[in-house]
Design a protein that fits this description.
Length: about 550
């Protein structure tokens, strides 16, 4: 015991500087970024007088990426301990969302729980066999023949049967609490509008969240070009696409390099610790595989399609296996736009709810149940009389590029145009219609054949009218040139092929929010209007209606007096 006195003395010395008394000390244990974020989810319910320390149980092949997350924990006032200090330390309880037999060394009672939607995956390297779901195997839960976790938490009563098959001696230590992560996602549903705004899903756009778990059987492992094909096939003014990748992918690869072309076409890449849950709340469609993100999306009643099922690496008795047989498939090589619309038309949320309910038990009760499970280890933890106040997820912080070239199609209507823009890839296929590019488009060949060129920055080096004249001089075949004046108010300056200068402004209808008008969309709409026989002279008097999907924007034009 003398060996530990210096550590305990340091702890006492540190606590003398606390303003408020500490009434309990929890150790959060993680092996990967996935389990790190999950374990912090579970501890949000603890009262503020309970101190939380964090440690990383070493040895995982997917530990890369934890450093950045640990830095944020330190900024939040959480102590991060080396594993050896954690092993020798004194805590009321330790909580882990991924169990490993080396955790038997901890002196605190250990509470373990899943780090996904239940226990589903077969990982022989962890379990030592090909039949036990990771997290419930004898190899993971026992040391020298004895079960070492004090409590094994389950998300659904059906998991008792899984545990009974794989490690029967641990059944007596198992309790059902539900799924804290899914409950927190559900509690965040009132934030949907805020999340959608953060993802740029405004003015009639709809959001597709494409996601992949890890391994060769995943969506990314089987169809690595699917995110790019989605952003290229979906009309940019009607759809936004966000990509969520399992943290294990981030630990072994650089997603921004993998998705470089897709990001350039407008794909949003959501970092694993900054917003995948919020992206699910914001989503209209979920395209994925057998990972928890797809499972949760279906449980939220999002239109869900699977491009991979991962049946080869799942416990055949698990809900995730049944989910792969029940959720409608997506053909990655087919017409993605048509498949999304058809799936929405025939969406049957109840059919998938019957499957997701097999893993997500005790909905809405996980916080209360978790406090009840931790209560015996800490006197400061009590089950509240009222439901604990939800803690919504923060808004997502995606990394995204902005397309610099579009393929434009559409038709003229009586008073305007109906238009669609498709981001152009690195190697454009045969044009559907005509090209509209921004001044940042690096491919000189595209600029030379484009009908529309747009400067999106209001405060460029050249004044607006001068930039328009210079651009028209450089590209004599140009139909329309546009430079932004005020992006917030939707005001832009336009030069037509004839040399006519018009100032365009989006018209705000009564009771509507301030209108927005993308300058590239404006230029493309004008080129479509003029190319289909519309008259320049009609624009200042009648304006133009621009229709994209279900949205209609009215634009008025004025000539310099």
């Amino acid at each position: 015991m003398a060996l530990f006195r210096p550590l305990f003395r340091r702890r006492a010395d540190e606590e003398r500087w606390n303003t408020l008394p500490v009434q309990g000390h929890v150790l959060a244990v993680a092996r990967t970024l996935t389990s790190a974020t999950r374990v912090m989810d579970t501890l949000l319910a603890l009262p503020p007088q309970v101190k939380v320390s964090f440690t990383v149980n070493p040895g995982s092949a997917f530990a890369s990426g934890l450093d950045g997350y640990l830095h944020t924990l330190r900024l939040d006032g959480i102590t991060v301990l080396p594993w050896q200090d954690a092993v020798g330390g004194r805590f009321d309880v330790a909580v882990a969302c991924a169990v490993h037999r080396s955790m038997h060394r901890l002196r605190a009672p250990l509470v373990v729980m899943p780090h996904g939607a239940g226990y589903n995956r077969l990982v022989r390297q962890s379990t030592g066999d090909g039949t036990s779901a990771a997290g419930l195997s004898r190899r993971e839960l026992t040391y020298r023949g004895r079960v070492f976790p004090a409590v094994v938490l389950l998300s659904h009563p059906r998991q008792f049967e899984q545990l009974r098959r794989s490690c029967p001696q641990a059944v007596e230590r198992a309790e059902v609490v539900g799924d804290p992560c899914f409950d927190r996602i559900s509690d965040s549903l009132p934030q949907r509008d805020r999340y959608r705004a953060a993802l740029g899903v405004r003015q009639g756009r709809r959001l597709v969240v494409v996601n992949s778990t890890w391994s060769e059987h995943s969506l990314l492992g089987r169809h690595p070009d699917l995110p790019l094909r989605l952003v290229q096939q979906l009309p940019a003014d009607e759809f936004a696409v966000a990509l969520v990748l399992h943290p294990n992918i981030w630990a072994r690869h650089d997603p921004h390099r993998l998705m470089r072309d897709a990001e350039a076409a407008g794909l949003m890449v959501v970092p694993p610790q900054r917003g995948w849950q919020a992206a699910l709340v914001a989503a209209d469609w979920v395209v994925g595989d057998h990972g928890s993100v797809s499972f949760y999306g279906a449980a939220l009643d999002r239109v869900t399609l699977l491009a991979a099922t991962g049946q080869a690496e799942l416990d055949p008795h698990s809900p995730a296996y049944a989910f792969g047989h029940t959720a409608p498939p997506l053909d990655p090589g087919g017409d993605l736009h048509a498949q999304l619309l058809l799936a929405a038309e025939h969406h049957d949320g109840q059919a998938l709810r019957e499957v997701t309910d097999l893993s997500l038990g005790e909905r809405g009760q996980s916080t209360r149940n978790l406090l009840k499970a931790l209560g015996p280890f800490m006197t400061a933890v009590r089950v509240p009389k009222d439901d604990p106040r939800p803690v919504p997820y923060p808004a997502p912080q995606p990394v995204t590029g902005r397309p610099t070239a579009y393929d434009v199609t559409g038709e003229r209507t009586g008073d305007g145009v109906r238009i669609r823009r498709y981001p152009l890839g690195v190697e454009p296929a045969a044009a559907r219609g005509f090209y509209a590019v921004t001044s940042e488009e690096p491919r000189l060949g595209l600029r030379a054949v484009a009908e529309v060129v747009v400067r999106e920055h209001p405060h460029g080096e050249l004044p607006p009218a001068q930039w328009l004249a210079a651009t028209a001089g450089q590209l004599p075949g140009l139909s329309v040139a546009v430079t932004a004046l005020d992006l917030d108010l939707g005001r832009h300056l336009v030069r037509l092929r004839s040399g006519l200068l018009l100032e365009a402004a989006a018209v705000r209808s009564w009771g509507e929010a301030a209108p927005q008008l993308d300058p590239v969309l404006l230029g493309a709409a004008l080129a479509l209007w003029l190319g289909r026989g519309g008259a320049e002279a009609d624009l200042p008097e009648a304006g133009l209606l621009v229709r994209t999907g279900d949205r209609t924007a009215r634009v008025r034009f004025s000539v310099h007096p």
